Amino acid sequence: MTNKTLNDTIHRVTQRVIENSRDSRADYLDLMDREGERQVNRGSLSCSNLAHAFAGAEEDQEAIRAARGPNLGIVTAYNDMLSAHQPYYRYPERMKIWAREVGATVQVAGGTPAMCDGVTQGEAGMELSLFSRDTIALSTTIALSHAMYDGMALLGICDKIVPGLLMGALRFGHLPAIFVPSGPMGTGISNKEKQRTRQLYAEGKATRDELLASEMGSYHSPGTCTFYGTANSNQMMMEMMGLHVPGAAFVQPGAKLRQELSRAATHRLAAIGKSSEDFRPLARVVDEKAIVNAAIGLLATGGSTNHAIHIPAMARAAGIRFDWNDLSELSSAVPLVARVYPNGSGDVNHFHEAGGMGYVIGTLLDEGLAHRDILTIWDGGFESYSKEPGMNGDDLTWRDPGPSGDTEMLRPASDPFQADGGMRLVQGNLGRACFKSSAVKRERWTIEAPCRVFETQKDVNQAFELGELQCDVVVVVRFQGPRANGMPELHKLTPALGVLQDRGYKVALVTDGRMSGASGKVPAAIHCTPEALGGGPLSKLRDGDIVRVCAATGQLSTDADLDAREPAPAPEPETGMGRELFAMFRSNADGAEQGASSMMAMAGL
Asked: What would the pLDDT profile of 311-322 be if each residue is shown by its tens digit?
């Protein structure tokens, strides 16, 4: 173990984040201190308040009434349509038992919505997806508003759910909080085979039944989808921020180890409340260094591009300012140490078996590439997260993961897959956007070609089917930003664009929308800001304009004279599937780089 001093670039970025956040962070911590001081003592509540609060507590009623120990509030995103959240069904009843073991009690404070982007991809419901994060944050605050709790157990895994839970919980940051994951499903068919079938279907060479059989071979049981998309990137970040029990991210549901990790989370949450000698409020755990660690983990593992939006939003909820300049500069210093599908061939189960998060955190700390001095929820600090959990009989233990179990999956930071983290800022007269270079072969980092301009995924796929895209082309899909239609993921573009690339054409995507954390292969400048709605540069592009996208030089530009053009008219907002009810969220949303949140913008955070 070399234990090098902190990398100069990481130190410089962290200090900039601290300085840029000085006033807003101070205001946030002052608010949390005031909230902690006026936290309701349950004994001082009126008898009517108390009776309502524990009327349904059954055998825990007397313990809560007498305030014999900490009362922990669960905020759960359980539903049994979302495979990752199906295992949460029995968590509350088990956590009640585990809490009693240490003299505590547990109540389900409330639930949040939890939609599946995999179900809504390319469908109308996807336009609700991003703002489900704000809805989850608001639901979390409602759940915790009863002021009955000494700690927060947050049960959520997937795409907008973890960011939303954290954003809401941070407004109650005077309390401790622990995220309790449920783990990934077992590995199904190979990712390469799944991708092959998708492209065959896009070319009309596979039937719908064959495609469905392939998809069912991939998504087949309770647990998180096994590709390294946004959901699993969430779990990585909770480890990097010290908000999990160490090593909890990728242990499968149903395993004895998974149950013991959840038990340990319950016990630990009871031990770090305000009345304890080891008080660890969420507001102090999620600080500037923790946010930088989350970004470092994202870069080191080639995680989801969606977190270029979520990290700034989560940071803002804690009074911290973090932007794409910070992310891009960190990327220049943080090496890529993991290749997990879609960046590699193996899934998160293979990643975990090869050493997983314990190995990643250990090698980053060895090379001075992460902050080791963050406050975590776990005794022993961040170095505890460089271990992997296991069972010794009935006892939960942690051990050194040792060397990588698969150097095609995991490598030491001293000998990485590539020297940078592969999340690059591209900018120019078309705006600012994110480019995930870690998912794209280096020879495709630069694409210059005439553009074709579209306003829906459907129009792109129709042009593909008609053979109109059999050429070098930059596909521009605009009016997909947060204010236009809720910034949906454009995952249905990937098969068609992948086919064009495989046929030898130079292809790139430029959009103010999002691409799934599972996307890769095709070079893409995404989250383009300012968005097209309101006169952003993409609204002035025309078919045939030459567009250049270059991850190497950080360029996103056109030779066209945009200043001489009027913006194209925006499409009328679609209705149905409840989209009209989200008009308030769309109209008040801020830009992608700020986190694309209407809630934060309206609150002035």
From this structure: 999 999 999 999
Check whether 374 has a pLDDT greater than 90: yes
With tokens 């908000």, the residue in question is 243
Q: Both 56 and 140 in a single domain?
A: no
The residues pairing with 558 across neighbouring beta strands, listed in sequence order, are 547
In 3D space, the residue among 298, 287, 360, 371 whose CA is nearest the CA of residue 331 turns out to be 298
Q: Which residues of 572-583 are buried (b: 16+ CB within 10 A; e: fewer)?
A: ebeeeeebeebe
Binding positions for [4Fe-4S] cluster: 158, 225
> Is 181 in the same domain as 292?
yes
DSSP 438: G
Q: Which residues of 151-190 are buried (b: 16+ CB within 10 A; e: fewer)?
A: bbbbbbbbbbbbbbbbbbbbbbbbbbbbbbbbbbbebbee
Q: Is residue 18 situated within a structural domain?
A: yes
Q: What does the H/E/C string look like for 507-576?
A: EEEEECCECCCCCCCCCEEEEEECCCCCCCHHHHCCCCCEEEEECCCCEEEECCCHHHCCCCCCCCCCCC
576: pLDDT strictly greater than 70:
yes
The domain that contains 104 carries what CATH number? 3.40.50.2300
Edge-to-edge strands, sheet with 71-76: 105-111, 71-76, 151-155, 177-179
Domain of residue 440, CATH code: 3.50.30.80
Which residue range(s) make up the domain with 445? 423-571
494: in domain: yes
In a domain, 411, yes or no: no
Write the DSSP symbol of residue 90: G
pLDDT of 44 > 90? The answer is no
Cα 459 off chain centre by: 29
Residues 242 and 314 in one domain: yes
Cα separation, 574 vs 567, in Å, equals 20
Q: How far apart are CA 186 and CA 217, in angstroms?
A: 11
| Same domain, yes or no: 394 and 513 | no
Q: What percent of the chain has pLDDT over 90?
A: 79
Tell me the binding residues. 158, 225
Q: 510 and 387 in one domain?
A: no
pLDDT tens digit sequence for 322-332? 999 999 999 99
Assess whether 463 and 339 both reside in one domain.
no
pLDDT in tens, 216-238: 777 788 999 998 999 999 999 99
How many Cβ atoms sit within 10 Å of the Cβ of residue 444?
Answer: 17
Q: What is the pTM of this model?
A: 0.94
DSSP string, 344-412: SSS-HHHHHHHTHHHHHHHHHHHTT-S-S----SSTT-GGGGGSEEEEETTEEEEE---S-S-TTTB--
* Helices and strands, number each (H, E), in the chain: 23, 14
Q: 93-107, 117-131, 344-358: which range is least confident on average?
A: 117-131
Q: How many domains does the chain have?
A: 3
Total count of residues recorded for the chain:
605
